[in-house]
Amino acid sequence: MDASHSFAREVIFLTKVALRSYALLPRQYDERKVLASTIDPWGRALWLICPDARFPSRRAGRDVPAPTKLPFDALVVISDRGVVREQTLHGVAVDPSAFDALPGGGFVLSGGGGPNARSGQIFGRDGRSRRRFPLGTRLTHLVADRRSGFWTGYADEGIYSDDRVSAGGLVRWDSRGNHAGALRPPAPLDYLVDVNTVNVCDSTVHAVYWPSAPLVETGPGGIRRIRRLPVSDPFGLAIRGDRLLLLGGVEGGASTADRVSAVHHLRLTDEGAVVTGHEELVFPNGDPVRRYARPVCRGPRIFLHTIRTLRQWWVLTLPQPSARTGRWRPGNTMTPRPPGGCRTVNRP
Q1: Are 94 and 59 contacting, i.e. CB atoms less than 8 angstroms apart?
Q2: Residue 160's domain is classified under what CATH number?
Q3: pLDDT digits (tens, 9 = 90+) for 120-169
Q4: What's the predicted TM-score (pTM) here?
Q5: Are 282 and 304 contacting, i.e. CB atoms less than 8 angstroms apart?
Q6: Does an H or E element contain 139, and which?
Q7: Is residue 322 part of a domain?
Q8: Residue 23 region, left (φ>0) first, then alpha (ψ -120 to 50), else beta?
Q9: How far is the C-alpha of 325 from the C-alpha of 338, rounded, in Å?
Q10: Would residue 345 count as lying in a domain?
Q11: What's the mean pLDDT in 76-99?
Q12: Are 266 and 237 within 8 A, CB to CB?
């Protein structure tokens, strides 16, 4: 490792940035029976619960719940800045691993299955099933937007399987579950192996995929811009104007040993981005963040939870610029609130 890389590794850990608590599942609900959880487009924390779950396996120190039978009735717990309500989903016919709230008050669920299996299910605002449809295999991202529908991203095992949906890499859907397009990057960035991270704000999507570490900005109208990044394989991204925050990732070929807790600050340029700073991610008590589940990224915020529990959501925020200097303040100093940087629309 040369001197520049040694210096970069030192800088990463000179400053620490702390997560802030965002949402907590109320104690009257059994956290062990949570099948999936997310932060929806309106900043609400959602937990999908199977009341009669069984526990066929254990992973990462947690009993893994599964429905006793299919179909079953699931309970969605919705926390909107501390105000909690429930919604029952009737006739869930998949074993859900991911879900989100849709424009109009419905929900989309993703389960497992082989190539071209009907692994997706749409529910209306009344909690009744509307349709089942193929949602691809090896799904790693399911993120809804506020206006038009939702987006799905896939790992390489899905992209290069025989599944016609997963082959799209990053796929757009309308709120009824109709396929509405897939990412088609131009050459020489058209080789897409794995979708690293997806940020959805209104109907604007920023994603980083592997290889080549491009940041693509897209939406219902197609690709708007692609920039090359000096950081590859990030786990999460936040964006505000021309400022970008990447959680995790590898910069300049440096060692990956500590990359899960590395926070990279970048400034976007016309063709790419330049690194402006580094921080180490820690919990509020100062403990290092060593493992976490795949984050949910919305505008200037990255939401994450640990692998051991789905009960607690944390937030990392890309700060506002300083009013005095115009420079960007380091550290996570903002009070958690629904995702900013996105225009306000009515909740479903």
Answers
A1: no
A2: 2.120.10
A3: 999 999 999 999 999 999 999 999 999 989 999 999 999 999 899 999 99
A4: 0.90
A5: no
A6: strand 139-144
A7: no
A8: beta
A9: 26
A10: no
A11: 98
A12: no
